[in-house]
Amino acid sequence: VACSNWKRIMIVLSESLQQEGVPQRDPLAIPRDLVHNSSMHFTFNKFWKRYGKFAKHLMKVKLKKYTKFLFVRDPFVRLISAYRNKFEMRNEDFYRRFAQVMLRRYANQPTPPASVDKAFTLGVHPSFSHFIQYLLDPQTEKDMPFNEHWRQVYRLCHPCQIQYDFVGHLETVEEDAEHLLRLLRVDNVVEFPTSQRNLTASSWETNWFSTVPVEARRELYKLYEPDFRLFGYDRPESILNE
């Protein structure tokens, strides 16, 4: 989580974005379309191409000697946030790849609108409950692995294989990020951007899950239990024991 802002930090530190010959120093001044643009980052593919047969050895060295960090978030709140961001906003890609599937399977819509614009005009979109059904449906992962926005973090970032030096939490991101940048000795170069966005709050969980049957909530907890346990999040008793 928080990968957009961490990518902004990486762009500043790598000095890969120049403005009139001077490296960009303000993370928030980096245009959103450049943040996730692979041209701005030393990606896995570039690494592999540059080092060829030495790449595997160099990866082992980097995994041993570099500072490895990870930011996590309450697993259920992360799911609410993913739903809000990908299905309550107009996103053609996510509509075609996922929303149409949910509408066909769970919303009695055998022929959902062809585009996200048509769907929004008609007021058609999968509910949060449909999204949870999709996650719990065994057919989902038979078709393809979970998308990175809702794949369990233990499967996405492999904390049992990679010895992370630092695990931060989105709930305390500003102080955790400040501490990490200080550890890396770059706190005099860059500050983590303060987010002004409408972040999904953990206090909203009860309202969001009110439309999801209790049995489904308990199944969902089992699906994400390793993330709760690994990263120090309490079992959400009020949601699971209604």
UniProtKB/TrEMBL annotation:
User: Which residues, if any, are the signal sequence?
Assistant: none
> What's one Pfam family the UniProt record gives for this protein?
Sulfotransfer_2
Q: What is its EC number?
A: 2.8.2.-
Q: Which SUPFAM superfamilies match?
A: P-loop containing nucleoside triphosphate hydrolases
At the top level of its lineage, which domain of life is listed?
Eukaryota
Q: Does the UniProt entry include the keyword Transcription regulation?
A: no
Residue ranges annotated as transmembrane are none
In which compartments does the protein localize?
Answer: Golgi apparatus membrane
Entry keywords, A to Z: Carbohydrate metabolism, Glycoprotein, Golgi apparatus, Membrane, Signal-anchor, Transferase, Transmembrane, Transmembrane helix
Q: How does it sit in the membrane?
A: Single-pass type II membrane protein
Q: Which family does it belong to?
A: Belongs to the sulfotransferase 2 family.
Q: What is this protein called?
A: Carbohydrate sulfotransferase
